[in-house]
Design goal:
The protein has 283 residues and is α/β, with parallel strands linked by helices. The protein has nine helices and eight strands.
């Protein structure tokens, strides 16, 4: 897959929320700067400055109310072109719920915070049954995991060769410790499946958040680029989580600078074209 060199920039991964200290208890003291509300009007000027045209809003809370919250925002702000929501994939009534959500074209896929579950969670029968229904309705699935989940994720994707998957945040390798090892092996195995894509997002918060340098990310970008190729990589900011470690422009520049030596069409694909194709965006 490729995109013309002048293709618009699409942020494939960001969030909005009404901050609640209980609901957002995962925001620790090191990330205290994001203990507040984040809405589209906060993001728009950053996009204008960075030359970003559109985005994909991804769930942060695991309720259907979160999905409705994001679809409501998308109805009011045209730059939000897609929503990755939440639905209980283990629900006995899942088929009806997916049918309902399929009536809202802005909803392109779903996600569960698998990084907060044991790896076996994604291999339980009820969850697999739910994943198996997604493609019937044309939905994608975002896989949010840590490196220790990679073997289970590999088992998951093997079962569903026709389901579009994308790995969020390059599976959160231990960049701060400079570890590749098991993460690299798992990512290379996942990349063997052509229906699996990868988001170039969430990296700064896995590095030393106060003292990272762009070269810290190069070994990890080398791995995913060699493994997935430029046709299955999607730029994403993970705003506002990224603000714990970097400004928006710093985050986008990490990706832009790494891929500067690549062709104009490859850069356009990574910065927007691949996201548009994966999420079937109307631009």
């Amino acid at each position: 897959m490729s995109a013309p060199a002048n293709f618009p920039v699409i942020d494939s991964h960001q969030h909005f929320w009404h901050y609640d200290p209980v609901q957002h208890s995962w925001i620790n003291d090191e990330m205290a700067v994001i203990r507040k509300n984040f809405f589209p009007e906060d993001l728009q000027p950053l996009y204008k400055d960075a030359g970003v045209t559109a985005c994909v809003a991804v769930q942060a809370d695991q309720t259907e109310a979160e999905t409705f919250f994001l679809t409501d925002l998308a109805s009011k702000y045209s730059f939000i072109r897609a929503v990755v929501g939440w639905v209980d994939l283990r629900d006995d009534a899942l088929e009806d719920r997916l049918g309902f959500f399929a009536q809202q074209p802005v909803i392109k896929g779903f996600r569960h915070v698998l990084q907060g579950e044991e790896p076996a969670f994604m291999l339980q029968e009820s969850f697999l049954r739910g994943i198996g229904m997604l493609s019937d309705f044309g939905f994608t699935y975002d896989i949010l995991i840590y490196p220790q989940h990679l073997p289970a994720a590999l088992q998951l994707v093997r079962k569903f060769p026709d389901q579009p998957f994308v790995i969020d945040h390059i599976a959160k390798p231990y960049i701060k410790r400079g570890e590749l090892g098991a993460w690299e092996n798992g990512m290379r195995q996942l990349a063997e499946y052509p229906n699996v894509h990868c988001k170039l997002s969430g990296m700064v918060t896995e590095a030393d958040m106060r003292h990272w340098k762009e070269q810290d990310f190069r070994p990890y970008l080398d791995v995913v680029t060699e493994s997935f190729g430029t046709g299955r990589l999607l730029y994403g900011s993970d705003w506002p989580v990224c603000l714990s470690a970097a400004s928006y422009n710093q985050v986008i520049d990490i990706v832009k600078n790494y891929y500067a030596p690549f062709s104009a069409d490859e850069q356009a694909a990574i910065m927007g074209g691949n996201a548009a194709a994966f999420y079937q965006l109307n631009l």
